[in-house]
Amino acid sequence: MISKTWLKGNLHTHTTNSDGDASPEHVSEWYHEHGYDWLCLSDHNHLTVLQGSKTEKAKWPLLVHGEEVTSRQSVGPVHVNGYGITELVEASDSTDIVTAMRENVERIIAAGGMASINHPNFRWAFDDGAMMQVEGYKFMEVFNGHPSTHNDGGGGKTSTAGIWDRLLSNGRKVWGIAVDDSHHYTNEFAADRSNPGRGWVQVKSETFSQDGILTAMSDGDFYASTGVTIGDMVSNTGEIKLEIDPETEADGIQAKYTTLFTGSNGRLLYESTTNSPTYKPTRLDGYVRATVYSSRGTRAWTQPVFIGS
Ligand SMILES: [Zn+2]
Ligand SMILES: [Zn+2]
Q1: Strands 139-144 and 114-117
Q2: Average pLDDT, the chain
Q3: CA-closest candidate to residue 160, choices 204, 219, 193, 116
Q4: Which ligand has the shortest distance to the CA of 179?
Q5: Rounded distance, CA 73 to CA 24, Å?
Q6: Distance of CA 264 from the midpoint of ligand 1 (Å)
Q7: Span 7-226: which CATH code?
Q8: Ligand with an atom nearest the CA of residue 40
Q9: Taking residues 59-73, what's their average pLDDT?
Q10: What is the pLDDT averaged over residues 290-300?
């Protein structure tokens, strides 16, 4: 029995088991203290599993097993997160980006997990061209909180949301996640450091368990956020309707929101400036997804609804 409609979690986190600066226990406590229901400790090429007493576990969010399967080629890093894996996955040592990505995805699936392609624009490693040549992954990072991941693209490089739209427009059913990719939990918290609390997902799970959360994520029953809260959401081929929970500042001033509904090839279908943006898909849309922009600079991304497929 769960008391919340949405379960908040971060899917990408590092600890001292790879290049994070705090122990898995410290990191887990940070997320619990900051209102997260669940967390995936995704160390580079290390499966971090915490065995705690009942008292210790009460200080942690629910922990979902994961690993950042990390291939470090000179041509560009290929990092693929595996969620729900039952054993350590060995990273591909191929020097070819597509081969490394393929092998990492295949090995994650063979270990019982679901694969997510991480931060395409980190070191400008690859884009949808490489990702279209790989099958079987469920997710991609539309937002990564590490300061070197270039989510917005630029200079002729496509944003991560643009890469997502190209995959969707080419018939790929991929869900978009927002993650912290946090490394720094001690000393200063600053924009140029890799701190926690920047990107998360809110999952509508039937049960508060790893299986429940991963099943809901596999079905696309979640949204990604960097600060926008959606209270309720209807999302099907007949209607997409969001109820935005407005952020209120100490003096009672409310943030304002703009929601863009986009379809095939990233085409703008409809723009709403209300706190209850609603759109009824048409057969020509291909797919429909919504991005909510807050006047405070934060965003939320809903998962695409596929029309006529
Ligand atoms: Zn990475
Ligand atoms: Zn990482």
Answers
A1: parallel
A2: 96
A3: 116
A4: 2
A5: 27
A6: 29
A7: 3.20.20.140
A8: 2
A9: 94
A10: 97
- Which ligand is closest to the CA of 194, given by its number? 2
CA–CA dist 106, 175 (Å, integer)? 18
Q: How confident is the model at residue 1 (pLDDT cuts 50, 70, 90)?
A: very low
Task: Report which bound ligand comes closest to the CA of 182.
Answer: 2
Q: Which CATH number fits domain 227-309: 2.40.50.140, 1.10.3090.10, 1.20.1250.20, 2.60.40.1930?
A: 2.60.40.1930
Q: Cα of 87 to ligand 1 centre, how many Å?
A: 19
What are the residue boundaries of the structural domains of the chain, listed by start? 7-226, 227-309
Amino acid at 13: T
H or E stretch including 243?
A: strand 240-245
Structure tokens at 188: 């200063």
Share of the chain above pLDDT 90, in %: 94
Q: How far is CA 209 from CA 12, 38, 292, in A?
A: 18, 9, 28
- Output the CA 11–ligand 2 centroid distance in Å: 10
What spacing in Å lies between the alpha carbon of 79 and ligand 1's midpoint? 5
Kindly give the distance from the C-alpha atom of residue 171 to the centroid of ligand 1, in angstroms, as a whole number: 26
> Is 227-309 the same fold as 7-226?
no
Mean pLDDT for 7-28 is 98
Average pLDDT over residues 217-234: 97
pLDDT digits (tens, 9 = 90+) for 25-34: 999 999 999 9
